Sequence to fold (212 residues):
Amino acid sequence: MDSEPISNAVLAQTLTSVGLPTTLEEAIRDYKGRMLSEVEQLAERKLGRPLPPDWLSRFREDRAVAFERELRPVPGVADVVLSARDADVAVCVASQGEPEKMELTLRLTGLRHLFAPHALFSAYLVPRGKPHPDLFLHACAAMGAEPGQCVVIEDSSLGVTAAIRAGMRVIGYAAGPHDPELRDAGVEVVHSMEQIPTLLGIPGPVRSPPAA
Fold:
């Protein structure tokens, strides 16, 4: 799911409410893909003072409400995961988000059942988050694979950098037609999940024929 637009819209609102005027575009530019601890540090430097003690809990609460209302799975992503599993390709999630956020967003989008209990990995469980390779290397080891065997599908430059540093192949996913962030990172970019099986060299999803 692409939770970044929703998260950053809430982030812009909550930062503005505490005296740091922030637009959605500025939030995406400055904070997209970052861990919340990094977001706090950057915001406090801009603000010139600490954020209110309850700022983080308020942000999480407002974000959860927005997720409940707006979050949807990326079209076709469930088919991609099922196609990979049918081809005996192991799949996992390696996210910059907190474990609780991962569970929430996967549940809300109906994708949680596609991943084994041990196949969710958070940057909060390793020393350093993206753009460092720690998270991907940890997930790789836990899944019993070598970095060169892995393909990472990413939608942020921080994640692309982390995967490249981990020695993994990267496919950039851009929901819209404009993707300078991913193009500049020098990776192959797709705009539809339907393109992924071909790039992985596996059969695509088997679709039922339309009713007569």
Notes: The chain is about 45% helix and 10% strand. Residues 208-212 have pLDDT under 50 and may be disordered.
